[in-house]
Amino acid sequence: MFFVRAARVLAAGGSPRRGLVCAPFVLMRSEPMSSMLVVGSVAQDTIHNHLGTHERVLGGSATFAALAASYFTPVKLVGVVGRDFPDSGVQLLRDKGVDVRGLEVVEGKTFFWEGRYSDDLTSRESLKTELGVFASFQPKIPAEHRKTPYVMLGNIDPELQVAVLDQIDAPKLVIADTMNFWISGKPLELAKMLKRVDLLVINEEEARQLAGVHNILKAARALLAMGPRIVVIKRGEYGALLFEGDSVFSAPAYPCEEVLDPTGAGDSFAGGLLGFLAKEDRVDGATLRRAVIHGSVMASFLVEGISVERLVRVTPAEIATRYAAFARLAHFATPAEIGTL
Amino acid sequence: MFFVRAARVLAAGGSPRRGLVCAPFVLMRSEPMSSMLVVGSVAQDTIHNHLGTHERVLGGSATFAALAASYFTPVKLVGVVGRDFPDSGVQLLRDKGVDVRGLEVVEGKTFFWEGRYSDDLTSRESLKTELGVFASFQPKIPAEHRKTPYVMLGNIDPELQVAVLDQIDAPKLVIADTMNFWISGKPLELAKMLKRVDLLVINEEEARQLAGVHNILKAARALLAMGPRIVVIKRGEYGALLFEGDSVFSAPAYPCEEVLDPTGAGDSFAGGLLGFLAKEDRVDGATLRRAVIHGSVMASFLVEGISVERLVRVTPAEIATRYAAFARLAHFATPAEIGTL
Q: What is the interface pTM, i.e. ipTM, of the complex?
């Protein structure tokens, strides 16, 4: 059970390519930068889709989140891989400026997932899940990372998420993801974790499951009452909803002409979101909305390639252009613009 | 087969209440007004939901569309009912300023539908469908209605939709709805109808079916190539997409705290949309976007009551307030506002 479900979150893959030698976030810098820590899975996946089979491509929630965030802020990654993990994977992260000193390499096999997508990419089937060294992952935050202000807890055992927080000094913002496996399997531990988290990102179905109510507004309020002061509900091709206090923001998804591989879209979304907040180094309502759009921008690029291949080729100019496309996509005349206010 | 599927579109219901005696659109008037004609079903429904059973409430696609549009523009309704149709139903339409001279009353029974919703309102089951006099509906457009500039072809046989257009003199804008029953059952007639329509409103699943492609951007392009120059894809609680040329607009849905009855939401959306266009009497891109939001506003009120009970109680001030809420819901800083343009 765990193996099959966990794959949904942990899986992904990529044909590693060399990125820019300089850290990409430098190109985007226009304000004081903070930094971000991400803890989660680093994996290899074999993906079968309408284009064929993609063998042992780069994957893992921390991988996607770190790469997406790397365009905005310095990123430190904490995870574990086996001796079989290719140097090219590590080098790819380094090329994008990701600090991999927290990526342990231990005896054993790297987390591996194999799955098959339906031709329209709306469903997928797990064919193989081998947790390998990830089964006994105990995140150790290097001393030099313990003061990182922005922290992303990838979707792992909520006990481990809490253990990570115990190793961090006074973070400014903690964002966490979770899934149905933990909601049903470790409710008490999840409840403890939620009390220590500022922002929960969760998909729509799991938001309803965790809140125990179908209406999405009521579900969001129930989640806010569990601890986080901000809740972001991911709705896939329908965008995302951001809840903070009484404010609700509905972010559109970008209608992509060619979706090649949705693996890691949610992780890229969360990584882009938190990376942008770290870059701006503030978490007010307006910045949160821009962060959600930047998360959506990174997810929209991610799905345009197999594994991380498109994500690592993105340029800062493309990010700005797509942000503008989101603005055009969502704009209609406000009462103030019409003059009816 | 027809009976069961048609019910999805034709069904609805409502406990008639008295509206304002004056036509509500007068209160909203701020610009020269045009007018709108709607052709479709007028029905009675019995609805079972989490609140209980609602016997023989007012329904029908033309009913919902006319009432939603009545807040913006003078509306003329063309449809058919049997001798059993209650005077209160006709009076309710009149009270909202709807011109019912085109509503035929003939020997026989009014279209009747009975259905049961799941507790979370995400699915429904048809229990009974009696087309009655609607089975032989042959829309006759009264002479005084033939120059109406804005025309809505409710979801009826595409041959009848074409027959309606043959009776209209040089309409400014024709909007049509359709459904899976006609897509699979009358593809040639549907193709002919689409060539004479300016704006197609269609739900997401049926857009994919009609276009024969899953990707929503490709589906919209395929629909545009069939005739209409504007396509609006309804996505229920996820909002709507508007396609016109290369422009795409993603409209959010309003997150309602209490959804009581979604019957007629799509018809209220289309009615509000076309009513707003008629009021503005222009169909440029910016006006279309505002029209989609007004359609969403009317649908968001509709679902807050059983049948039309909430829709007929809406005030112009509430419409303006909810439009402003949609603007807050969707707003994020554009590149121009941020100063990165």
A: 0.89
